Amino acid sequence: MHGRADVIVHRKNGRQRVDYFHRSPLRIFMPENHSGNVESEIVLANTSGGLVGGDELQVNVVMGEGTRSVITSQAAEKAYRANGADTIIETNLKLDAGSRLRWVPQETILFDGVRLRRRTVLDVDGQAAAIAGELLVFGRSASGEGFTRGLVHDEWRVKFGGKMAWADNLHLAGDVARQMESPHGFDQAKAMATLLYVSKDALERVDCVKSLIRTDRCRSGATLIGNVVIARWLGRDPAEVRRAYAGFIANFASALGWTDKGLPAIWSV
Description:
The protein is mostly beta strands. The chain has one domain (2-268). 14% of the residues lie in helices and 48% in strands. The protein has helices at 176-181, 202-213, 238-256; strands spanning 2-12, 15-23, 26-29, 40-46, 56-63, 68-73, 77-79, 87-95, 100-103, 108-110, 115-124, 129-138, 151-160, 163-173, 191-198, 219-225, 228-235. The strands form 2 sheets. Strands 3, 4, 6, 7, 9, 10, 12, 15, 16 and 17 form a 10-stranded mixed sheet that branches. It has a 7-stranded mixed sheet with strand order 2-1-5-8-11-13-14, with no helix packed on it. Helix 2 (202-213) crosses helix 3. The longest helix is centred in the C-terminal third of the chain and has 19 residues, at 238-256.
């Protein structure tokens, strides 16, 4: 299975337009028909119901000058156990001057024995801004399944103003159970979320991030590296991590004045 989705958001005759291409099993939906300066809402769906070894997905997004969009997923992505080949996900997000993007897909659930390699490249112009995040759930707690074996290699590469601004690799392989249980590792966490804010005003926003991220639901923290604010959550209850993460996204977007709608409606379905 080799799915692909290409999205180009641009302006024509003073109106914002979204052009797209999708190849099964990826599908693109537009819940509302926006125009003008209003943020476009775009939903990605994997119609296969999940990912297995050998599957490959590629998503490419280009935000043209002065455009605004929020992109999310229809539901949680399921990455199933694989006996052989790896599952590959490639995401490329490019923001031109004056654009802004909220990339906020719902969680990815890692089944025991998964083999997942995911790479996300975020390329932000010096006059653009992005909120981009991910949420990983380790195993299926409701089914009594943990995450004890397999492979997860999750990469972030962030460019700002044409220069590398931040890079991060999460690599879990071999004795995954020990890494998940260790107090020096994941300390029995069942979920982890990461959110980035990339903009020229990152320094001015880091205190806001730190104030909004505080929660008794799970462990959390934030830091600033150049023009990138990195916020993270870690917890033993995936539902609590999701609530803390989702609440922060909505509150932070509102604090920035980007939207008064909070998260896309699909998150509540």
